[in-house]
Amino acid sequence: MSIKSFRLAAASAVLLLSAAPAWSFSFAPASIHHHALARPKLTAASHRSSSSLSMSAAAVATDDDNDPPLFESPLKGIARDYKMRLPLYGSDVADGLNSQCLAATLFLFFACLAPAVGFGALFGAATNGAIGTMEMVSSTAMCGFIYALTSAQPLTIIGSTGPVLAFVATLVQLAEKMNVPFLPLYAWTGIWTSGILFLSSITSASNLVKYLTRFTDEIFSTLISFIFVVEAVQNIGRSFTNPASSFTKGLLTLIVAVSTYFTAATLKGLQKTVYFNKGIRKNVSNFGPTIGVLTGALIARWARLSQGAVATLPALAIPTTFATTSGRPWLIPLLDLPVWARWGAFFPALMATVLLFLDQNITVRLVNNPQYKMEKGRRKGNMLDGMHADMLIISGLTFVTSLVGLPWLVAATVRSISHVRALSIFDSAGKLKSTIEQRITGLSIHSLIGACVLFDKPRSVLTQIPTPVLMGLFMFLGTSALPGNEMWERIKGLFKDSEKAPKERWSAVPRSVSTLFTAIQIACLGAMVYVKESPIGVLFPVVIALLAPLRFALEKTDVVKKEYMDVLDEE
After folding, report:
1. How far apart are CA 521 and CA 510, in angstroms?
2. How far is residue 110's CA from residue 112's CA, in Å, rounded to a whole number?
3. Contact status, residue 136 vs residue 123, Cβ threshold 8 Å
4. Which of 460, 458, 470, 452 is nearest to 300 (CA)?
5. Which of 105, 124, 127, 303 could pair covalently with 444 via S-S, beta carbons 3.0-4.6 A apart?
6. 110 vs 113: CA distance, rounded Å
């Protein structure tokens, strides 16, 4: 190995060593899983009847399927995922042809396009224009369409995330320090990453996620909701403080964003009221977010037409032509990177693998939560089904996007949860009854985004939508993902009169214990926010991985006793 290669390896090893704890949680499974997956014992009575013995054996076999080993023989997990899902492909199409899926498509189109444009601008700034808005929107359209077409859990929405952006920014700095071109280094890092993810998919390494519990899910989900709301509020605040803006524009920005948010939230909640008949409530509720976007856009348009330039708000910025941001060729010149650096790229790829692996699997785990009552291609109560096939798709997409310099995409938490909730069906009492499991919405959402990339007409229409409208939608996305999150419910419970408040699932746990448990979760949330916003933001996935052993330590050290933990952290 040359001196340069050694220097690159040493620089990257700092990141890798920091990620080492990410694997530690695999050796200390939380007791809740042993409790939930306790295997039936054969009793003396089972020897009296061969049929009883057969039933017990079947029960054990089923339990073994629901609690697979950490690693399985090559392709076993992928084959199992597709064997359960592919026979249902016809219904995945037929079940998506209804008004609720149309409403979800229109809502999620804006909810996916806006972050793509926003992240594209941030990538452009971080990479000096090497990867920008056109690359991000193109990657969102292409990868999202392929994922919806081929994945085992098509309700998951993939997109870029903050940790991926932080990692790419670090990779830019590494390229500058090592005096190598960034894009070839990015491509080789992505190629190595896709290879490692491919190995993890064929060996069923996603089974590691079974050691994560509600404790981790709630913190991660709350964090992503927090990020969406804070980003929206900060953007609105900048309209008042930006020297290029004015108080009039700031006030109009606030009015448009709040109008979008409250219209979407109010109409979405209409389904739980007694107004109008059931059909009207359902349809207005389904189209609520889209009506909210149209309301905000119309208010902004009225202000611009009546008041002129003084009331003209910044609009969605989409490139006017289909070409790379910097004018470079689409295909990355892989051979421009020295041989030593091609091998050295393996080390930052290890960190990228940890990042993509955790981002993808934690979000899919949230989507697969039994509370959404999905049945297609999965065994009852199993949250791992589909993960191995989906990781295979992510590895392939990572390889392709690396070759052409597009951003890497993984499951996006808030967009995925919003997608699932938009497809949820509730009974007359407002309780979730089932979820429409299909592929049409995912295919349609990303087809529409692709049309914005390829055709002039859709682009010209979307450039008329003011940014404050999208900020209102961001607030709706962030807040709509919180209901059902027990961490959020317990945070609100801290300010409630326990004697007057309705009893919750965890009410049997002493209030002091539930308060301590919630405080620890809040502290973890604060630590994740701090790391994400700090110069070491690339280590964000490591903090996520440490949540599992922390939860286990809380129980083992009796900070939270097992009988209470089993209630608070029940799956």
Report:
1. 17
2. 5
3. yes
4. 470
5. 105
6. 5
Cα separation, 397 vs 190, in Å, equals 10
Largest Cα–Cα separation, the chain: 88
Stretch (H or E) spanning 261: helix 247-268
Average pLDDT estimate for 205-229: 88
Q: Any bridge partners for residue 410, and if so which?
A: 159
Q: Which of 323, 360, 322, 346 is nearest to 160 (CA)?
A: 360
Nearest to 151 by CA among 353, 407, 410: 410
- Helix H or strand E segment including 176: helix 162-178
From the CB of residue 526, how many other CB atoms can be counted at a distance below 10 Å? 11
d(CA 337, CA 330): 17
DSSP readout, 3-48?
Answer: HHHHHHHHHHHHHHHHTGGGGGGGGS--HHHHHHTPPPPP-GGGGS
Identity of the amino acid at 461: V
Highest mean pLDDT among 24-28, 209-213, 292-296: 292-296
Integer CA distances (angstroms), 337 to 101, 325, 340, 341, in order: 46, 21, 8, 6
Tokens found for residue 31: 């007791």
**How long is the chain?**
571
Taking only the tens place, the pLDDT of each residue in 552-567 is 999 999 999 999 999 9
Question: Dihedrals φ, ψ of 437, to 5°?
Answer: -95, 115
The DSSP annotation for 35-88 comes to: HHTPPPPP-GGGGS-HHHHHHHHHHHHHHHHHS--SS-STTHHHHHHHHHHGGG
Other CB atoms within 10 A of residue 97 CB:
10
| Encoded tokens for 281 | 């409530």
Whole-model pTM: value is 0.81
Please report which helix (H) or strand (E) contains residue 393, including its range: helix 387-404
Torsion from C-alpha of 109, 110, 113, 116, nearest 10 degrees: -130
Instruction: Report the range out of 59-73, 254-268, 355-369 with the highest average pLDDT.
Output: 254-268
> Could you give the count of Cα atoms lying within 13 Å of 163 in the half-sphere of its Cβ?
29
Name 528's Cβ contacts closer than 8 Å, sequence gap at least 6.
219, 223, 540, 543, 544
Is residue 432 within a helix (H) or strand (E), and if so which, with residue range?
A: strand 432-435
Hey, is 520 helix, strand or coil?
helix
State pLDDT tens for residues 37-76: 333 333 333 333 333 333 333 333 344 455 678 889 999 9
Closest residue by Cα to residue 385 from 526, 518, 215, 209: 209
Do residues 96 and 149 make contact, with C-beta atoms less than 8 angstroms apart? no
- Is it the case that residue 28 has pLDDT exceeding 60? no
The token pair that represents 128 in the structure block: 């000096």
Helix (H) or strand (E) holding 434: strand 432-435
